[in-house]
Amino acid sequence: MARAATTSDVFNAIAEPQRRQILVLLRTGERPVTDLARELGMTQPGASKHLRVLREVGLVRDRKAGKQRLYDLDARGLRPVHEWTGGFERFWNESFERLDAYVQDLKQARQEE
Length: 113
What we know:
Blueprint: H1 10-15, H2 17-26, E1 31-32, H3 33-40, H4 44-56, E2 60-65, E3 68-73, H5 79-86, H6 89-112
Helix pairs in contact: 3-4
C-alpha cells in the first residue's frame, strides 16, 4: 500500500516528532523560525522544512514582519485528528470504569480486613 504524501495528510505531518514539538511551542503564540530552530536544536533550514509541511496541511499560518517570517498555530487543522481519536472515547470510558470498579473493590477489601 502506498503511503500518503506527507504534505497532504495531517496524520503524516504530525507523525514526525519534531513537527509535534513545533506545534507545542506554537501553542503559546506566534514565533519566528529562528526561535523555533534554536529551541529545537536544529538548523533554520531544517525548521523551515518542517514548518512548510505543517503550513501545507493547515496546522500553521505564517506572515512576514520585516525581515522575519512569523509562524502561528492554526489548531483548526487538528480537527480530523480530534474527530478520529474521539471514536475511541467509548474504549477509554469503559477502561476507566473497569479501573474505578477495581479500585473500589480494593478499598472495600481493605476495610473488611
